[in-house]
C-alpha cells in the first residue's frame, strides 16, 4: 500500500477531499465502490512517512485555499519518493474509487507514455510548475503510429485533474500528427499546465473538459476533437510550421448538430511563440477550420494578437465543404487580430455574437460548470 500523509495546503484539490459527495462518478452501470480503507484515507490521522522530505511539505503549501489533503504517492526520478515513474503511481491508484488519489510529481523530465484507464477515477497529478515537471514523448504518425496511439498521455477515467505539470510531444513539425494529450475524461480539469507539440497537440476527444491558465503550443489543428471544452485564461501559442503550411489553432469535430459540444475560449490570449515571432509573422495563423460538418468554436473576451490572420478562419480543404453548417463565433475580443473587417463571410460564421448568444459558451451552459466546478476549488468564471 502506498504511503500517505496529511498536509495543510492551499491546493485546489483539497476541496475534493473534504467534499467527496461532489466528486464525479461514472454512469450507474459502473458504480463506485470505495473500500473502507479508501474512505478512511480521507479523514484518518496519518503520520508523515519517512520518505517525504520536509522541503516537499513546504513546496506544497498555500497557493489557493487552506485545507487538508491526503498525498497518496510521491514520484521522483531520484528515488526520494515512493515511485520513480508516474506510470507506477498510476498503477497503484485504486480502481473505480469515489475518493481522490493524489500524486505529487516532483520536478524532472519524465520520459514516459502514460495511460489513465477508464477504471482509474478521480486521479490528481500535482507537479512543481509547468516548466519544472514535464512528461515527454515523441511518437508520431510519420514515425509509424496512428494519431491516437501517438499520444504521450492518454486519459479516460472520470474526474482527472492535473496541476502545474506539462505534457509534450517533441516529434516536431515534420512528423505530422503527434499528440501530447488525448483526453476523454469527463469533468476533467487542467490548471496551470503546459501542452506542447506541433500538429494535433491536444486531442480533446470527448466529454466535458475545463482548462484554466494553461499554455498550449502547436501548428496544425493543435486543439481538436469533439469534447465540450472550455478554455479560460489560457495562452495559445502558434509555432513555426513546415514551410508553406498555415497554422490552424482548432479543428473541432462535432458530428451531431444536437450535441452540446464545442470549444470555447474565454479571457484567453492568442500569440506567437518566440520562433514564429522571429519569422516576422510570415506564416498565416487561423483560429480554426471545420474538421466535420457541425464544427463549433467560439472566441470571446480574448486578446488576439497580430499572429491571427485577418480572415480569421480557413476551409478544411479546397472543396470548401461544411461552411454553411459549422458554427464559428466571436464576441468582445480585443487586440490587432480581433478586427472583423476582413473576416470570412461564410453562412456559419457569426462575427458579432450578442451577449445572449455568447452566454451559451460559458462555463455555466457549455460545460454545466456550476454543477461541479465549484467543488474543485479552482477559480472559474461562470458567465460573461
Decide which structural class fits the backbone: mainly beta
Please tell me the CATH architecture of the largest domain by its name. 3 Solenoid
CATH superfamily of the largest domain: Single-stranded right-handed beta-helix, Pectin lyase-like
Number of distinct beta strands: 28
> On the 0-100 scale, what is the average pLDDT?
85
| Cα end-to-end separation | 46 Å
Low-confidence stretches: 1-22, 27-68
What characterizes the major β-sheet?
A: 11 strands, parallel
Which strand-content bin applies to the residues?
25-35%
Strand order of the largest sheet: 3-4-7-10-13-16-19-22-25-27-28
Tally of DSSP helical segments: 7
What is the CA-based Rg, rounded?
A: 21 Å
CATH class of the largest domain: Mainly Beta
Overall geometric form: globular
**Number of domain modules:** 2
Amino acid at each position: 500500500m502506498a504511503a500517505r500523509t496529511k498536509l495543510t495546503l492551499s491546493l485546489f484539490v483539497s476541496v475534493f477531499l473534504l467534499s467527496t459527495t461532489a466528486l464525479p462518478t461514472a454512469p450507474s452501470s459502473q458504480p463506485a465502490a470505495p473500500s473502507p480503507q479508501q474512505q478512511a484515507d480521507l479523514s484518518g490521522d496519518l503520520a508523515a512517512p519517512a520518505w517525504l522530505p520536509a522541503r516537499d511539505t513546504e513546496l506544497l503549501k498555500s497557493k489557493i485555499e487552506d485545507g487538508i489533503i491526503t498525498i497518496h504517492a510521491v514520484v521522483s526520478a531520484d528515488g526520494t519518493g515512493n515511485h520513480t515513474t508516474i506510470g507506477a503511481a498510476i498503477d497503484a491508484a485504486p480502481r473505480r474509487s469515489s475518493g481522490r488519489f493524489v500524486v505529487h510529481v516532483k520536478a524532472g523530465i519524465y520520459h514516459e507514455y502514460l495511460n489513465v484507464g477508464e477504471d482509474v477515477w478521480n486521479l490528481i497529478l500535482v507537479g512543481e510548475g509547468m516548466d519544472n515537471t514535464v512528461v515527454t514523448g515523441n511518437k508520431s504518425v510519420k514515425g509509424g503510429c496512428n494519431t491516437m496511439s501517438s499520444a504521450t498521455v492518454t486519459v479516460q477515467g472520470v474526474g482527472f485533474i492535473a496541476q502545474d505539470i506539462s505534457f509534450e510531444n517533441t516529434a516536431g513539425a515534420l512528423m505530422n500528427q503527434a499528440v501530447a494529450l488525448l483526453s476523454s475524461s469527463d469533468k476533467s480539469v487542467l490548471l496551470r499546465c503546459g501542452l506542447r507539440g506541433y500538429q494535433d497537440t491536444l486531442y480533446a476527444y470527448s466529454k466535458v473538459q475545463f482548462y484554466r491558465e494553461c499554455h498550449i503550443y502547436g501548428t496544425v489543428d493543435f486543439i481538436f476533437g469533439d469534447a465540450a471544452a472550455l478554455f479560460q485564461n489560457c495562452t495559445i501559442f502558434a509555432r513555426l510550421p513546415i514551410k508553406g503550411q498555415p497554422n490552424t489553432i482548432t479543428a473541432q469535430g462535432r458530428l451531431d448538430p444536437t450535441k452540446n459540444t464545442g470549444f470555447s475560449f474565454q479571457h484567453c490570449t492568442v500569440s506567437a511563440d518566440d520562433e514564429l515571432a522571429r519569422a516576422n509573422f510570415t506564416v498565416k495563423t487561423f483560429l480554426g477550420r471545420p474538421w466535420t460538418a457541425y464544427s463549433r468554436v467560439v472566441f470571446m473576451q480574448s486578446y488576439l494578437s497580430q499572429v491571427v490572420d485577418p480572415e480569421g478562419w480557413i476551409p478544411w480543404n479546397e472543396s470548401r465543404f461544411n461552411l454553411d453548417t459549422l458554427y464559428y463565433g466571436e464576441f468582445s475580443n480585443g487586440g490587432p487580430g480581433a478586427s472583423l473587417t476582413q473576416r470570412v463571410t461564410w453562412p456559419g460564421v457569426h462575427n458579432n455574437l450578442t451577449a445572449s448568444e455568447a452566454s451559451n459558451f460559458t462555463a455555466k451552459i457549455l460545460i454545466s460548470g456550476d454543477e461541479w466546478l465549484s467543488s474543485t476549488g479552482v477559480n472559474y468564471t461562470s458567465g460573461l
